[in-house]
User: What shape does this take?
Amino acid sequence: MSESDKPSPSQEPTDPTRRDFLTLTACALGAVGVGAAAMPFINSMNPAADVLALASVDIETKDIPVGTGKTVLWRGKPVFVRHRSDEEIKAANETSIKSLPDQQTDQERFSKDPKWLVVVGVCTHLGCVPNEKKNPDKGNEADGWLCPCHGSVYDLSGRVISGPAPKNLEIPPYQFVNNGSVIRIG
Amino acid sequence: MSLIRWIDERLPIFTFFNKELKEYPTPKNLNYLWNFGSLAGIILVIMILSGIFLAMHYVPHVSMAFDSVERIMRDVNGGWLIRYIHMNGASMFFIVVYIHIFRGLFYGSYKSPRELLWILGVVILLLMMATAFMGYVLPWGQMSFWGATVITNLFSAFPFGESIVHWLWGGFSVDNPTLNRFFVLHYLFPFLIVAVSGLHLVALHQFGSNNPLGIDRTKPTDSIPFHPYYTIKDLFGLGVFLLIYCGFIFFAPNFFGEPDNYIPANPLVTPAHIVPEWYFLPFYAILRSIPDKLGGVLTMFGAVFVLAVVPWLDRNPIRSSRFRPIYKHLFWVLVLNCFVLGWIGAKPPEGMYLIIGRLATAYYFFHFLILLPLLGKYEPRPKLPLSFDDKAVKSL
Amino acid sequence: MKKMTLVLFLVMIIPCHADNAVPHLPKQNWSFNSAFGTFKRNELQRGFQVYKEVCSACHSLKRIRFRDLKSLGFKESEIKTIAAGYEVKDGPNAEGEMFQRKALPSDAIPSPYPNDNAARATNNGALPPDLSLIVKAREGGADYVHALMNGYIDPPAGIVIEGGRHYNQYFPGGQISMAKPLTDGQVTYADGTSATVEQMSRDVSTFLAWAAEPETEQRKQMGVKVMAYLLFMTVIFYFTMRRIWRDVKK
Assistant: This one.
């Protein structure tokens, strides 16, 4: 093939070591620009401000008397908040953890304030919402939860006692604010 | 054996891109007016990407559409940026495409053998107009609603008009069924534009680009490989374009828009002046210059269709206006005329404005239907350069 | 070249499609207007106070949530307190009834009326528009809102005011249903600034400009960086292009 058949040769050398500094800079900065431009698009898929605003839920402790509980919606999931009585706390402490599938003491779980149980009400087996379980031998007092789907049983510390659930009920991040008058979940 | 060779043997993508994008012989004398094709392609990609991410948050229901757009603007991370990219991108798309079209008219890029390339371009323009029209309805502002009402009502001018319009609306007025289907079709059409643009490029590569001299290339030294010469030139042009585009996005994001569209749609209150987006103004002027409803609709669509037949209206063998002593001036008269039409489109159709609008409409068709064929036959034909390097023959 | 200049000139004119039924709007100097514009926190807070104490009697601001007021410089605890001063409807409760509760930061600023019909019934059939987007929804933006507040004059000779309306020289058509909303000293500013009509209209226009475009400062700051980067890249591309094209003879 003779020279005249080819289009005018480009000045640009193909040997990478002689690559034009200008071209290299342009390419590198261009790539940075494209990456930077992609960021807002990817970030737009992250939770939006209105979703984040509902990312935490405040509960007034005075709204929940001793020995009763409340279920609140947090990030689309139910959270059981229970104001435990002294007997309930004592019973939870006295349970032998060796008999539990997922060994955790009640103190480990609720070191902040054992009077308040805060657990995510989603069964760790396959995700159903357990129901409150009442003990007919103790005057129909609540003594834990029973999952209707496959029969997992949880005690008043949210620990799985029996059934297919592998782990204890999850404890969400929570803290006491306003001198302990408010529980903030998330 | 390298991975690239392994893939290429089975699916010759690399060979294909090497031939059509890297080595591809391109006229060496193209000016900046040839940047606008690649620019349009890039804007199309930007519009599709920004549109997809907007669609993740937009709700196409009359009770939530406006609110969902405001949610994008206020709550979605970077939502205001994506929305303004999409909104201003539409205007940029039309500016670029209009310049691209006028380039074609000036340099005779529509002439043989590129007639089909040109017609595909007209198809792309029509698809763009439909896409933009439906897109503007989605925010469900006052202009969205009333613009949709006015334009869809036009179809009642056709025989069986009322049935057609009810079919379009999915009801007895522009309402939720209309909004929902416009959303779906607005999402679909850009992919049709991608497909037709692909055909547009295939047609282009059959004979290669036209050039400012309008004469065919005769020797290999008339051409240079697309890469790196035109890749870098297109990148530079892209930089200039992005500077203008981002100027609008960040510092004047509502420059091309109408304040009335920040008022939620109200079927019981008609805005004082219903105006379409600026890129439709010339067509709106043409529509309103004809007193008969059906006549107006046909004339408006006729203004686009007349473009498609330009290769047969203008049979002058000289392509580039650089060598057409009369047409090169009449071209600018046409450009001015289109601006006049655009200006008229924003004015109420009465008094002096109506008269000027009618004259401008008449001139538009006069240019294509009368002037072009006449010039084709009677315009003096100066000598064309014999080759790209022929310095003896100067442009007029 | 001359043709291009003419064309470009025309391009500039075409978008000016405003038809002037009202006198020319006086242009104000706003801190947020320039390419490097920002909102002044004290202006925003005063403007919010004007909205709260004057405008909110009739105008809703439903697209602003209490948490958005963080941009005005309020702390989280202050926002909680501001919100708690309002009541919102919630429910149904376990008994199936709707109930009132204190507003939270995640709630929107409550509207003065439960619905548009109630608003019209109390305002002679006129609907006081929601103000969240008013600056973007009117030709002239913040200049228009400011001018409107100060535009109440005696009607020109020969103009008959219809049913309970008022004359405002900047309102399209001249006859506006809203009575002059601002009078000197109407509000006692928390920061001690003298609350003249001019001051209040300026502050509330600034506040409403923020309400319509809360992203303004971030948008402009990002814009400056993007333009600088693009300018730099374009210059690099230009010189790279010149080098690559050096050997091509036209």
Q: What stands out?
A: The CA atoms of residues 3 and 9 of chain C lie 10 Å apart. The longest strand of chain C covers residues 87-90. Chain C has a mean pLDDT of 91.
